[in-house]
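User: I want to check something. If I give you two sequences, will you return the structure for each one separately, not as a complex?

Assistant: Yes, each is folded on its own. Here is the first sequence with its structure:
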Amino acid sequence: MADKDKKYNVLNASRLSVAPMMDWTDRHCRYLHRCMSQRVLLYTEMVTAPALVRGRARHLLRFDRAEHPVAVQLGGSDAGELSEAARMAADEGYDEINLNIGCPSDRVQSGCFGAVLMEQPQLVGDCVSAMIAAQPVEVTVKCRLGVDDQDPTQVLPAFIETMRAAGVRRMAIHARKAWLKGLSPKENRDIPPLDYPLVHAMKRAFPDMHLSLNGGVGSLAEAEAHLAAGMDGVMIGRAAYHTPPDILLDADVRIFGATGGHSGPDARGIVELMRPYIASHLAQGGRLHSVTRHMLGLFSGRPGARGWRRMLSEHSHRDGAGLEVVDAALACIDEVQERQAS
């Protein structure tokens, strides 16, 4: 059976997911993360429907079959374009199609999609209804608590109700408002206060909806606490990117109940698993930096991590750089460990 025809248990996988992050969760990043966990749900960067439909950029949907279960995140506000983009994503074999109603960047606002659509819930409902009708893969929504001067206690439950009426059964909620006026996208990730109690209240108010909490979760222990408190899933962003072993290596055991002790290899083992992938990428004319930029945090907090990061940062972007740079970076780890052991 071809991979695109397999049915992956996305509902179970969404107990823990790695958030879609622009410029970060590309296919190389996702392959790396899959080496650390076989069960977490992975998301693409946001891909805009206009780019796929008008720009004929279907190559943006490319992914390695090893990434399953994997979801694509789409951006847009035109029901027709989103329907066509959803059909493309379904044909490519994605396990879930997510609509972005959370990104606060200026370029997203100017295109009338992302968090600004929190102000137009019925339009979002029309879009997701059309996406659901156009193809067989589950359509989900990722949103904020609200935007600007909206009252989240009023806006969020009404938004969820509209999504439910449109046929959505699973949502991820970033537990911050988005300030579209006055804050940069970076500031929107930190400055608006987190409101976890409101997201938990939404789960109690909508027990039939599968709701994941996103925003500020920095450890597996925090994820476990939210799940124990009743959330269906937890979505982790920056912590999963910057310190992936801390989040992903034990996730299969602690979050999904996998048996057999430690769920995967250590950081060095992950490097070895990445070697064939990197070699294939280089053989196809790719640049080393495209992959290794996502590997900088593999040894975070461990002896030699600084040398590992420095070697990759300074040398992997150079023309002709290959696996010898990775070997030199590993040598930095060995040097520090040997010095400490002597």
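And separately, the second sequence with its own structure:
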Amino acid sequence: MRAKQKTLTLLLAALAVLAAALALAVWCGDRAAAASEAENHIPLSPLNGAALERIEYSCEGESVVLIRQDGQWVLERDPAYHISQTRAQAMADALCSLAANRTLGGTDTAAYGLDAPRQTVTAAADGQSWTVCFGDENELTGDVYLRVEGDSAVYTADASVQDPFAYTALQLFEAFSPVGLSTGEITAIEYTRADGETPQTVRLRKVSRLVQNGEADSGEESEAAYETAWLLADDTQASTSLVTVMLSQITANVSGQITAPEADAAYGLETPAVTVALTDSEGAVHTVRLGMGAGGCYLAVEGDASVYQTDLETLDAFAHTAAELTAQDTAG
């Protein structure tokens, strides 16, 4: 009996030792994981996003400088140029949240490509500047080496931290519609083509007409409904599909912007191929000129100093005479 009790005591003691060892292993593992996590997130940026006012970097040999004006990011050398606010803000966010994975300590920067950095990014906030330099990439880990100006240490970080700064000024352009109207806001269209000796003008107006739903002979009261139609000057209904194409093309996003254009003749806008006047729901008229230049099709909006690059389809949408805009819908 005593032998059994002794054996049981030894087993319980062994279990207690094993439990203690397991607890120690878990604790050590947690400590190691916490240390690893801390090592993989070493904050480097002192920047406050709300105070950030300038970002300067280079891409493909071009220096790009962005400044914040009235809450919007603009190109310093060309504030009228329409840049992507999403991409600009991604740069700001990347700078403010920049963190390293490891610290290599004070080392020879040349060994990491930091004596002649592949890219340098400088940000300014509250009158103070902050610069980070990116060097070579580690072929094994894929991390990039970087150094912060004023800090002798070399750090590693995910190579993706450089991605927001991979855009030239041209690539920062964000497509938009300089006409500034949606198709639903347009109530009248007047366009003049310069074809032949006598320019031809076509006028269209939008109307809302009452129609009846249901069978007239059913004995039931029909439900009133309205439909939208486009009428020519002589009240003939125009092709719905053709007018839809006109509206979608003239309000479409442009593909490029020239903020300091040459003379109109360089873009075929001195004598436009087509001049379009759009009347909005408040009665304001928006005049758009379309022309063909050496570089393609261009668009200019009255009151806007820029010239925009657009597609040939925009010109083609206004290729129809009044006679060709029949009441028969050609969509089918």
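Because they were folded independently, the notes below concern the second chain alone. The helical segments are 2-39, 85-96, 240-250, 312-316. The first helix runs from residue 2 to 39.
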